[in-house]
Each structure stands twice: as structure tokens, then as C-alpha cells.
Amino acid sequence: MPYFVSQNPNTTRRSFLKNRRCFNALFSVLVLVFTTVSAANATPSIEQWKQFNINTVTHYVLPNYDALETNANRLVAANQSLCKKTSKETLTFAQNTFIATMAAWQKIQNVRFGPVEISERHYSLQFWPDKKNHIGKRLVRLIDSKDRQRLEESFASLPISIKGLPAIERLLFSEKPISINDDASFRCEVLVRISQEVHNVALALSNEWHQQMLPQFSDATQLDGYFEDDIDAATTLLKAFVEPLEHIRDLKLERPLGSDAAHAKGKRLESWRSQQSKQNIANNIASIKQFYTLAGTAGESSSLQQLVGNEAQEIDALFTKVELALSRVPTPMKNTIETLDGYAAASELTAALTLLHEKLKGTLTAMGIHLGFNSRDGD
Amino acid sequence: MTKLNDLGEIDPHIGMTRRSFLRRTSSLACLSLSAPAFLHGAAVSNSHLNRSVYSAGKDSSGNYGLIHADQNGIRMIAALPERAHEILIHPSKPHALVVARRPGNWCMIIDTDSKQIVHKITTASNSHFYGHAVFDRTGRYLITTENDLLTGQGKIVMRDSVNHYAIHKSIPSYGVGPHQLKVMPDSNQLVIANGGISTRPDTGRKKLNLDTMRPNLSYIDLDTGSLVEQVTLPVALHQLSIRHLAVNAQGDVAIAMQYQGNTGDNMPLVASHRPRHLAQEKPAEQSSYQNNPLKILDIPLTQLSKMRGYCGSVCFDKSGHYLAVSAPRGDLIIFFDFINKRYVNSRQIPDGCGLASAGVASFEISNGRGSLYHHRISSPTSAEALLQRDARQINPQQAQAQRNNTLSFDNHLSTNG
């Protein structure tokens, strides 16, 4: 006699019912686990991509553009205070405000589509890399001209290279920064005018994303819309997630690093004057990770981390590897990349970025997102 | 107010997005636009095509094949074993010749009526294709660029289409890594882009000589196999791989390059060449012509930096006056007034690469997301006209598209009819 058959019929029935409930519960759990795993490994549905798009724009793109606008507005005020009364305190305050504005820009620098493409706003905010020293030459020319009319009435006609954050950095962090003798000087007027332009652009970006881009993601298939469908919209957003890793590696690291430590060029680093080169990369990585982990109001199912399913563990580990490699890069990078240890540490970071980039690219391809067929593997 | 780019050049499409709609709601809002904020374009699903176009491609399951598009839609009509590159339309038969991407060694001849593979060409065992082919002026001989694995040098192979594509002749390409080739319109010469990059099948697509590469543009007499003219870039530009080229009816050659160094270097990517026999009268006292140098076509830095050192395809319009160059890594197609060697404007198309002439100042453009665009450029005459045009509601005919989002168009587009 099988051991589970009770002699008591009532007991047997109760046991059976209990076992059936257990079985049902177990089955439900198994089904749930199975479907969850399957869903996690499957290509996300159109509805999931739509939720992801709206979530990413609402909780990532818009707040980051808003933060840029807020910081840029503070920078205008800080530079106006500096120029009203130049002191060590006002200079330090202006420098710190600049660093905060640059940090805000670094967190949304990866979005290179939509309003930022208008009138070359991306380059207007940050003309970099500046291989031929356009900024230096043109800034000096402008300041030496003392042409107030040009500054006030025809600022729009000035080259975009001197309208952005690198020009402000030069004025605030040069070896001869704004000094007490510069009170009410033309140099100070240039500083304030450029700051106002940065704020104007940041404000326009914020407004246009709120008013015009968000509806495009809410209804990606609208006739004559910006996108063709939700997957097209997701692909465009995801390019802003993956491609910056290449940008950081190629332009912010490999270009300054050169072939070896002896040939490394610290002045090719981004924001080397304000010693923010490493912090910029840290902000870039933090922003990309935020993009990945963002949960949003739609729940975790719309975060990219959830959508990638079983790949999340490996991707998380590669993010950690990048963060660890970054933490080992000594500062200020301008000097350290020209040393053997600093060069090696920065090289390790480039290798970690490559691994993360390859993993993300492969994962997204498997999810049906083609970041580029010809652009990534052309001939 | 005329808007200049940072190099002081007029850039009519400063701020041009893939759909261009935002420019009219912000920086150009001062022009009091009443038109809707969107450019008619990529979402239009009705066909604009009045001809057939072919491309290699891939479907969403990862299968490679031959894609055909016409007014009835875009579809994959034949499966291929591996990724292909250029499609060549037979001049007199309903055949599409599909050339394997390097280092593939096959070329399929597909009957476009029956959709059946009617012949398969395979390279010699010590050779592989580079993805491009042309027919000679008679239409009888198929000419391909190939890699001679024994020497590492490029070669040009002629096969006889009336004799089951048996090899007729093999001649050197006079360089390493020959890629695209064209027949010159005025003579029995070939022009070949020797990309300069050495690869071997045992190392796949790995580039083996980036430090020493020396690409060139070579003109070869098809009758004798001799080198007629060869031009190179300055040594400082030796990592610019001359990969794709186009020839207009006047015999002018345009080349589109791929930079093998750091993308931030913003190297020039497009150049023109006029063969010396067209460029000069032969001086009586000289025994030979002087080589005519390659001329770089300037691109505004703001656009050049977007191209990320990579051009995917190049194509003249029907008149030979305008030139289109695709830069898929920058999602950008740029247009030149080639006769005046002047950049005209650009259009943002995600993963856009394939180009084909669609008439005078008109192009078909394909991308990796399964879209096919029709684009017409106009010749701007003044900066004011540019801005006025920018502000107008653009004629939908200028930017139509059709799409099959289950397919990806590969690098090149070929038209038939």
C-alpha cells in the first residue's frame, strides 16, 4: 500500500485537497517562474517598448534637461555676481557653479537627437574636441575687439565654438582668471553673455522636450511624427544609451592616451582646465547606469534592466567593472595619464568600457533592437 | 540673418533632424511659420517608387537574402548563404548578381522573374571577393575585385557571361584590398579603389596593416591590363581607406573613404579626381601626362564630426552634377554640388547607407531599419533662399519613404529601370 493513502477517508480527502492546493500553488509558482523567465528572455512587446520609451523620457531625459537649465541659470547669476564684485569668494562660487553646470551637461550629453540638433546646439553648448584651438583664437579676438555692439546685438553671428561651456571654462579657470581688475571689464561682459547663451539653449532644450518631444513618444506612430513606430523610438533612445560608451572610450580616453604614456597628451582631455576630466566620465557613466536601471512610475517592468532579463546579471557586473576601473584612475588626469601607472589605469578603463559596450550591443540585438546594421558592421 | 557654421560656411541645414520638424518650432520660429511642425516624410507608407531597386539585406530572424522593392512593397525574394554586399543588375537579362561580402568566395546569379538561383560563381581556392563587381562596356564580361591570397595583392578577374562565367582574364589591381570598381565612360578603362587594407581569411575581417597601409585609386586598361594612372593621398592621410567610388558621365570620379585612425581626428572623407587624360591636353614636348591629384571635398566640421570617419556609399545623380555620400555611423547623408565642388546640405537618416540615382538631383536612400527614402535636393543660390526654403512646408515628394521594418537594407542599393 502506498504510504500516502490514509486509512481514514476523511483524512485522505483533506490530505488530497491540501495536496491539490499545494500542487496548484506550486504549479502556479512554476508557471509564473517559467513565464517570467520566458518573458525576460523574449523580445519585449511593442507595449513594453512604449512604456520604456515614455518612462525613459519622463524620468530620465526631461529631469536631466531640467537640471541643466537650473544649473545654467545659476551660472548666469554667479557670473553676474563675479563681475559685479570680483573676489576670491565670488570667483570660487562661479567656478563651482560652472562645475555643477558641466556635470549637468555631462548627464544629458549622450542625447544627441531631437532639439539638441537644432542650430548645432550640441556644439554650441560644448565645442569639443577643439583640435585647432578655435575657441582660444576666437575668444581672444572677441575680447581684444571690445566690440560691445557685437556682443549685445549680433551675438548670434559669432562662431558657435565660443558660445558654450568650454569658453566659460577658459575664462574662469585660465592661468589668468577673471581678477579684481577685471571688474566691469569687457572680458567679464563676454563671460556673462556666453553664460546667458548657455542658459538660453538649455531653457529651449528643456521646453522643447517637454512640449514637443514627449508627445512623440506617447504616440510614436502618429502621422508625420518624429518616429515611425515605438521600436523606432526605442532604438533612437537606446542609441543614446550605448553609443556614448564608444564616445567616452574613443574621444575622452583613447585620443588623449595616444599610443603609450610617453605620447599621452593631457591637454586633449575634456575639461582639463577645471580638472573635471575624470568627473565628467564618472557623470557620463552614472547617467548611462541611471538610464539602465530607471524604474519609473510604470513599474520595474519598464526598466531596461528588467527588459534585458537574464542578461542583467552580466551587464550589472560589467557596470561594476567599469566603475571599479574608473575609481582606480588617479587625478588630475591631465598629469596622471602621462605616467605609467595612470596610463595603465586609464587603459584598463577603456578595456572595461569596450566589454560593457559589446555586451549591451549584443543584448539589444538579441532583443530585436538594431542600433545599426550598416553603421556598426558595414564594409 | 544668414546662419553660418563654425567654419564660416553657409550650412542650409544647420539643425536638420531626421524629420526636420523641430527647426521650425525653435530657431526659425521667427519666420512666422504657419505650416504644421512636421516634415512629411518617413511615416508615409505609400510607395513612391516607379522602378525596381535591389539590395542585399537581412531579415529580423538573421537570415540573409536579396531584397527587392518596387511600387508593390519591399520584400526579400531569395535567400543567401551569408551576408552579401553589392547587387549588380545584368545589362540585358533579368538577372541580379549578388556578390559576397569579403572574405566570401561566392557570387549568386538570381533570376529576378523566377526568384531562383540560376548560377553560382566561386572564386579560385586562393582567392576571395571584395563584394563589388561591374560588367564591361559590352555587357559580356563580369569584372570583380578579388584578393590573391598567395601574394596578398589585389587582382581584377574578368569572367565570360556567355561561357558560364568562366574566367577570361586576371590582372593586377595595382594595390592591396581592392574594393569598388567602375568602368570609365569614355574608354576601355577601369577605375579601382584599392583600399590599402590587408586581410586574410584565416583572420576573418581583421585588418592586418593599419600602420603601413597605402590606399590608391588606379586606372587600368582592360585590354592590356596595364596601369594607366595611379593617385594616392598624402602620406599623412595614409589611413584613409579609399573604399567606394562613383563615376559620372563626364568621367569625373568621386571617392568616399573610411578612416582607420581615431574617429575624433575628423579627417576628410570625400574627394574627387579627374583622370589626367581628361584634365589636360597632352603637352607636345612631354612623353606622358602629369597625374592629376585627388581633391578633397570640404565638409563643414560640424557635419564631418558626425560622420565618425566612415562613408558607406557614394553615388552621382543622373546629371552627374550632384553627389550623395552616406555616413551611416552618423546617420547622415551629405550632398554636394559636385561640379562646383561645394557641400550643399545633409539629411539625417538613421543607419542610412544605400544610395541610387533617382533622376536629376534625386536619390533613393535605403537604411538598416528597412526604410527606403526618396530625396530630392535643390540647388540653393543664396543664403536667404536657403532659409526661405528651410521655412517652407517641404514638398512631400522630397522626403517620401516606404518601409518594411522586418528587413535591413545592406550597404548598397541598385536600380533597374
Summarize the structure.
Chain A is mainly alpha-helical and 379 residues long.
Explained architecture:
The complex is a heterodimer of chains A (379) and B (417). Chain A has 379 residues and is mostly helical. In chain A, 68% of the residues lie in helices and 0% in strands. Chain B is mostly beta strands and 417 residues long. Chain B has helices at residues 276-279, 301-307, 383-391, and strands spanning 52-59, 64-70, 73-79, 84-89, 95-100, 106-111, 117-122, 127-135, 141-148, 154-160, 166-172, 178-183, 189-194, 216-221, 227-231, 240-247, 253-259, 270-273, 295-296, 313-316, 322-327, 332-337, 342-348, 352-357, 362-367, 371-376, 401-403, 407-409, 414-416. In chain B, strands 1, 2, 3, 28 and 29 form a 5-stranded antiparallel beta sheet that branches. The longest helix of chain B is centred in the C-terminal third of the chain and has 9 residues, at 383-391. The chains are: A mainly alpha (379), B mainly beta (417). At the A-B interface, helix 8, helix 9 and helix 15 of A face strand 24 of B.
Provide the number of structural domains of chain B: 1
Oligomer: heterodimer
Counted beta strands of chain A: 0
CATH C-level class of chain A is Mainly Alpha
Provide mean pLDDT of chain B, rounded: 82
Residues in β-strands, percent of chain A: under 5%
- What percent of residues of chain A adopt helix (DSSP H or I)? 55-70%
| CATH-scheme architecture of chain A | Up-down Bundle
CATH homologous superfamily designation of chain B: YVTN repeat-like/Quinoprotein amine dehydrogenase
Separation of termini of chain A?
Answer: 73 Å
- Biggest chain-to-chain interface with counts: A-B, 46 and 63 residues
Q: List the helices and strands of chain A in order.
A: HHHHHHHHHHHHHHH
Number of strands of chain B: 29
List segments of chain A where confidence is low: pLDDT < 50 over at least 5 consecutive residues.
1-18, 20-40
Biggest β-sheet strands, sense, barrel of chain B: 5 strands, antiparallel
Helix content of chain B: under 10%
Total separate domains of chain A: 1
Q: Structural class per helix/strand content of chain A?
A: mainly alpha
- Overall shape of chain B: it is globular
